[in-house]
Amino acid sequence: MLVDSFAKNRPAIIAIAIVLLVFGIVPMFGSNYQISIATEILIFALLAMSIDVLAGFAGRTSLGHGAIFGASTYVVVYWTSVVGGSPIVAVALGILAATLVAAVFGMLASRVSGVYFLLLTLALGMIVWGVALRWTSVSGGENGLRGVGRPEWLNDPTVFFYICLGIVLTLSAVIWRLVQSPFGLTLRGIRDSESRMSSLGYGCATHMFIAFTTTGFFAGVAGALYALFNNFVSPSTVQLSQSVEGLLMAILGGIGTLFGAFIGAAAIILLENFVSQYTARWPMVLGFMFIATMIFAPEGVLGAIRRIFRVGKKS
Amino acid sequence: MHGEATRLPTAPKKRDKVSDPVLILDNVVVAFGALKAVKDISLTVKSGERRAIIGPNGAGKTTLFNAITGVHMPTSGRVTFNGVDVSRKSAHVRTRLGMSRTFQITNLFPTLTVSQNMQLALMGTSSRKFSLLGSAEPTDDDQERIDDALGLSKLRERAGAEVRDLSYGEQRQLEMAMALVSKPKLLLLDEPAAGLSPAERVIVTDIVQSLPRDLTVILIEHDMDLVLKLVDWVTCLNNGEFLAEGSPDSISKDQKVQDVYLGKARDHA
Ligand SMILES: Nc1ncnc2c1ncn2[C@@H]1O[C@H](COP(=O)(O)OP(=O)(O)OP(=O)(O)O)[C@@H](O)[C@H]1O
Ligand SMILES: [Mg+2]
């Protein structure tokens, strides 16, 4: 029984063990700066995984998850700084807000697929961005909102890093379970043939709504952690490039591999930190990377590894 | 033999005697705008019967299946299944009452395994489809159903294969397995052998012949050799209208039937 469930979950167990090992040792010899980069990678890996559930399993590419992520960030910073409330309540409210935003998005986007899904989620994300920019009295407009810093017990970068590691790894196990569940199977069915799913008695829109809202929850957790991490939020947190970055991380790691998100997030955040020492044209570099990935490695790093293993097994 | 889930409260609990009609169509009409694809079709199919529906391209055979299974509601007329008027019932309700069908055009889940395709076919009418964190492993009961249906369709050894790796013939077999897994009382097969090689046709013929005798089967098929082997009774449609009905032998000799087939359907074989 135990051996059985190990065999079925082996990819997840191995992936989580590797992440735990690689990230777990960073604070032992890394500087505070390196620890903060590792923290950022973990947070964005969670965002990328939430996008991958839709892109890799349900076959729907969302350009709205950056806005959902950022909605949570806004709420957390607003609640701790402007309202002066407790950070725990702020995080809860942030995640709730993101989930609600995702539910609204999901209601509208669950009936469309392909390029219509892409464009609709893009448009919805733009609305959030527009609100963040224009609702100056609440959002601080272009200047954004500065937070009050993490509470005492969370302030140490190492402590905060390990807490993020714990949360992200726990949620990645939950997401793995989700895509392996009967519900996860229905998402893959919808990706392969929506018409056949309907004729088998599935309400595809309901399934997509649940999937969208659930992934919005995960993006919301990432956004809340980002608020505590960054201590600042502005319209750039909810803008399109946030979604594109999350999507690119998922693609680079390997769409449908889930844990590829860690590789994608690491690659892009390390590169971003490196590139921004020399130029302010990071968005352009990001664009080129997107194109290069689509041409040279459309299946991503983990996707390629997985294929090599599969070919090895067959022969 | 049939699980309680397949029976709605409105279904009468009488025993299916061999002579009881499973399906009765009364003057069924299906119109798409001005086009009447099915015109006033009435027919009765007895329990355990093997029936073929034949007719040239565009005769309305698939549309008639759609009206029977609830893909299209009949514009007028009545569909009675096991004594229940299902004319206005949705496709899902009819599936739960014990109808099942295959499609003329193969429509499967190519990147999933045969087993996963079967599981999706089973879960559609159960609440398990909303289990977000449960195990995707089928329950013992479901696994047994899946094994039975795959066995009937001679696909047991391919359970772990991805559908895109199956031959076209195997994909048609999977279509049948997915229709059988709900343990239907009435099975509708839309051209199960179309596009298959002679060897693959033999497999499909074997499968249909080995189906349990209490399962009522209606199949659409152009190949008269196959029809002669498989069914007790043939209904021929043309231009949406009833043309002729009879034993396979008498139908293949029928002048009207020969006329419409020779006139229009040279390209079928
Ligand atoms: N959804 C639809 N909307 C409009 N017209 C339709 C629709 N479905 C079928 N038709 C028309 O109804 C007529 C009957 O089509 P049907 O598919 O039932 O024929 P068929 O007997 O199954 O033919 P084939 O042997 O080619 O499968 C055709 O003229 C077809 O164009
Ligand atoms: Mg047809």
Describe the structure.
The complex is a heterodimer of chains A (315) and B (269). Chain A is an all-alpha fold and 315 residues long. Chain A is 81% helix and 1% strand. In chain A, strands 1-2 form a two-stranded antiparallel sheet. Chain B has two domains: 164 residues, Rossmann fold; 77 residues, no CATH class. A six-stranded mixed beta sheet of chain B has the order 6-7-8-3-9-10, with helices on both faces. Chain B has a four-stranded antiparallel beta sheet with strand order 2-1-4-5, with helices on one face. The N terminus and C terminus of chain B are likely disordered. At the A-B interface, helix 10, helix 11, helix 12 and helix 13 of A face helix 2 and helix 3 of B. The structure holds adenosine-5'-triphosphate and magnesium ion. The site of magnesium ion has 3 residues of chain B, from helix 1.
In brief:
The complex is a heterodimer of chains A (315) and B (269). Chain A has helices spanning 2-8, 10-24, 26-29, 32-57, 65-83, 87-109, 114-134, 136-139, 152-155, 157-180, 182-192, 194-199, 204-230, 235-238, 240-253, 260-275, 282-296, 300-314; strands at residues 145-146, 232-233.
Considering residues with a beta carbon less than 8 A from a beta carbon on another chain, report the largest interface and each chain's count.
Answer: A-B, 26 and 28 residues
Count of DSSP-assigned helices of chain B: 9
Termini separation of chain A:
29 Å
CATH homology superfamily name of the largest domain in chain B: P-loop containing nucleotide triphosphate hydrolases
Output mean pLDDT of chain A.
90
> Quaternary status of these chains?
heterodimer
Helix content of chain B: 25-40%
In the predicted model, the low-confidence regions of chain A spanning at least 5 consecutive residues are none
CATH-derived architecture of the largest domain in chain B: 3-Layer(aba) Sandwich
Any idea what the shape of chain B is?
A: globular
Q: Give the beta-strand count of chain A.
A: 2
Based on secondary structure, the structural category of chain B is: alpha/beta
What's the gyration radius of chain B in Å? Answer: 18 Å
**Spans of chain B of 5+ residues with little confidence (pLDDT < 50)?**
1-18, 265-269
Mean pLDDT of chain B: 87
CATH architecture of chain A: Orthogonal Bundle
In the sheet with the most strands of chain A, the strands line up as 1-2
Give helix and strand order of chain A, one letter per element, not per position.
HHHHHHHHEHHHHHEHHHHH
Round the Cα radius of gyration of chain A to an integer and report it: 19 Å
How far apart the termini of chain B lie comes to 39 Å
What compounds are bound to the protein? adenosine-5'-triphosphate, magnesium ion
Protein name (chain B): Branched-chain amino acid transport system ATP-binding protein
Organism (chain B): Aquamicrobium aerolatum DSM 21857
Keywords (chain B): ATP-binding, Nucleotide-binding, Transport
Pfam families (chain B): ABC_tran, BCA_ABC_TP_C
